[in-house]
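As agreed, record passed on underneath.
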Amino acid sequence: MRGFRAKDADRDRFVELIEAAYVDGQLGAEDRDLRVSRALTAETLDELQTLTRDLQLPEGHVPPAAPGRTPVRALSRPSSGARGVLVGLVVFVVLVAVGVTGVVALAMFAVSGGPDATTSTVVDPAPAVPGQDPAIGQPGPPSFELTPAGVRGLLRDYEAEFGTLDAFETGLYPEHAWAFVPVRGARPRYERWSFDGAWSRQSDASAVRDGSPVIDLGALDVRRLFANIDTAQKTLDVPRGELTHVLVNSWMEARPSVNIYVANRFDESGYLRTTLAGDVVRAYPYGG
């Protein structure tokens, strides 16, 4: 692995692992900051592996895959198509060994799939449906997830799609996001776009309300955002509270703010307001 160069996607995966280990209590804040800084500037995959070699994998976290290695899922049971190819090969070898005697019987056995088969009809697999796992026909994983890597990828896609990182407002949810994207013109206008792995326009241009300023999403500190999400879940007096969404806007103050909302199944909720750089402005706990 020493000779492989690291890509941005590799750095994002290892940063996510470091952040997960910090939330899991394996790292202190200073150690986490140092490792994240080094991961973001790592040039090779060996450097990234060295930074995380001593970390336990938090529950539910998938380890970053090394290049040239086959994922564990690829070693699972062969598909029905693969089993059919194997049966055909076995039949061919047996035919060569025994000659033409019994050709008809062996061919019938191969087509029927054996004495336990109920039909000899070969059925093509159903065509893949977008957003579904073709193996089980159920909806696949979301194409956007509210993780450090997911947010960094969203910001890259935003800049590629719109040629800027400016927005009037942005909402981040566990499996999707949206943004009020500025529209060029003499007066301030915006269009609402949604993101679930790709951007799609949800509304025509509208007037900007209350003279809200444009926000530079490039100033959002993703690392500190997720550290503050962890803080919000622990300090807002919402037992077993889960992150519901994050709003980046400038409604309450002249300067942009990041508002992190937490709630539980009893509809108890609170939120934490920070700057784009991650400095805490004020906490709004449940009942406060």
User: Anything to note?
Assistant: The helical segments are 8-23, 29-40, 45-52, 80-98, 103-112, 148-162, 222-235. The longest helix spans residues 80-98.
